[in-house]
Amino acid sequence: MLTELLTGWITHQRWFAGKGRPIDDLTVESDVELAHGLRHLIISVCQGGARDRYQLLLGSGAEESARFKPAHIGDGYYDAAYDADLTGVLLQAMAAGRDLGPLRFRHMEGTEIDTSLRSLVLGAEQSNTSLVYGDTYICKLFRRLIAGVNPELEIVTALALRSDSHVAQPYGWIETDLDGEPTTLAMTQEFLSNANDGWALALASVRDLYASLNPSAAEAGGDFSAEACRLGMATAQVHHELAAAFPTEVIEAQEVKRMIEDHRRRLDLAIAEVPELGEYAHVAEEAYQRVTDAAREMPVQRVHGDYHLGQVMRTTGDWVILDFEGEPGQPIAERRALSSPLRDVAGMLRSFDYAALHLLTDHPDARNLRPRAVEWAELNRSSFLAGYSAGGGHLRPEDAVLLRALELAKAAYEVVYEARNRPTWLSIPMTAFQTER
Ligand SMILES: Nc1ncnc2c1ncn2[C@@H]1O[C@H](COP(=O)(O)OP(=O)(O)O)[C@@H](O)[C@H]1O
Ligand SMILES: O=P(O)(O)O[C@H]1O[C@H](CO)[C@@H](O[C@H]2O[C@H](CO)[C@@H](O)[C@H](O)[C@H]2O)[C@H](O)[C@H]1O
């Protein structure tokens, strides 16, 4: 039976958020035929009283299923995101503005979509699945569905309308109604075919640095600081545009204290899930307390919400920022809530630590390389901050306390993320609690 096959299959998918917990029930909530041999499913998964929804393009046919082995679900069914003979239907339906059952396919006013292009699934490790059409479009299928308009669509559309050069041009989207709310299922954007992602560039720089430590190396490599500075400037400019496109507020000190209480609650939840974090709870607690003690008014606005080096791409012109959907899995209202832009700054600072440390997790010479890795992180963190200020970002000396607290809050989130998805990386965010700053 299809639901049984899906129950076995889904637990192995990178984007499945309920790993490690048994599935009590899986039902198909919506089943729409998009083309011959291609169905769009919304499945509902119950685990311990909580229900999550996911979407799937379901292909069928014994021959095709055999052809798409990695996407094999069983019994002639397969994940048709991998079948370029079928995925053209998505572009065609968006271009035509079609309604197929409860699914609405739409394109941005004034844009033309080339429907002749064939797709490939992007190989990156992701929370979602992205189809790249030719070298022109990328269509991101949001896997775990949360009722509401995805902030990614909302923000990219608003910034593109303001001609912000730091976002990729949006082309179209797919939506349906979930719990009575229009809900984004997918979004198609310009594919930046000549760009490199920030994570890859940063890692290349760290690798160069390690190579240059070898006495036979010809030159000292590893300088990423000019790029980190430019990224800081681009970040400040995007924050400026977000503040112009969406409402902003200044919250009272009392509200700042409530925000810190919320971080305390999240820290407790993180410790419940990853008990070894408990040993360092006092480090976060002290940082949180310092914010509470010095609480003052704080400007808030729409932000990126899950900002890191994997979310930025360097084109020949400048940095472009991707994936404004916030932390995957949080309710939409929370992801749309106004926050301090320093949350994004803190996210990127964490990412420099990640880039510096990740190659050391299984490096035979880790002990000797660690001090240089730390230097690399410090240099790029300060260059990013300098660029952020130079680009007009608001960063005052007294913000250091808030920034430190937000970094540790992000690190607590990462501890849970790594424990669930990449346990061998767990030591990276744990290091944040062991580093004096
Ligand atoms: N518009 C784009 N052009 C080129 N590559 C992209 C684009 N959008 C995403 N990517 C690539 O896909 C990766 C993951 O994209 P992202 O939007 O962050 O998805 P997820 O939410 O699943 O992490 C990025 O790191 C980048 O390499
Ligand atoms: O899938 P998303 O990109 O929306 O974000 C999730 O996955 C990220 C990892 O892919 C995770 O980011 C963490 O690892 C990155 C390196 O892979 C590092 O650059 C980030 O600083 C670190 O937070 C992100 O937290 C998670 O939400």
TrEMBL record:
Its EC number is 2.7.1.175. It catalyses: D-maltose + ATP = alpha-maltose 1-phosphate + ADP + H(+). Gene3D superfamilies: 3.90.1200.10. It holds the Pfam family Mak_N_cap. The keyword Kinase applies. Keywords: ATP-binding, Carbohydrate metabolism, Glycogen biosynthesis, Glycogen metabolism, Kinase, Nucleotide-binding, Transferase. GO terms for molecular function: ATP binding; kinase activity. Residues 9-83 form the Maltokinase N-terminal cap domain. Residues 124-325 form the Aminoglycoside phosphotransferase domain. It comes from the Bacteria. Pathway: Glycan biosynthesis; glycogen biosynthesis. GO terms for biological process: glycogen biosynthetic process. Monomer. Belongs to the aminoglycoside phosphotransferase family. This is Maltokinase.
